[in-house]
Amino acid sequence: MVQKKYQAYMSATQTVAKTKQIVMLYDGMIRMMRQAKEAIAEKRIEDRYHLLIKVSDIINGLQCALDFETGGNIARILYNYYSSMDSRVFAIHRTNSIEACDEIISDLKQMRDVWHEIDS
Question: How many CB atoms lie within 10 A of CB 79?
Fold first, then answer.
């Protein structure tokens, strides 16, 4: 099972444009943040925890993929954006704030739309 997922991932990284991959990652984060929000409302704390960890993992992956030599100032701006976003996601573990989820979802949508424009 894990092998098949890995093969599908490797195939996607070779056939899907990098900008499209980023859009897809944002789509996943938005979906998981919505699910985390539902989990908070339904007091499913363990589910909320796992969903927020997955969002953080994607944020960290995006942050680690930044190329500071080629990206220059934009890479530094994105690094700071990802750091801020990860801190905000982490804070939800303490607060269980549905409002914070909504704010993060809104910000992720805005950034996703920018990447979608770049991809188009």
Answer: 16
pTM of the complete model: 0.85
- Residue 30 contacts by C-beta under 8 Å, 6 or more apart in sequence? 105, 108, 109, 112
33: CB partners within 8 A, 6+ apart = 51, 55, 89, 101, 104, 105, 108
Among 27, 13, 18, 15, smallest CA distance to 109 is for 27
Q: Which amino acid is at 117?
A: E
Q: Which of 101, 94, 66 is nearest to 80 (CA)?
A: 66
Q: 90 CB contacts (<8 Å, ≥6 apart)?
A: 52, 56
pLDDT digits over 82-118, tens only?
999 999 999 999 999 999 999 999 999 999 999 999 8
105 neighbors 31 (Cβ within 8 angstroms): no
d(Cα 15, Cα 116) in Å, to the nearest integer?
A: 17
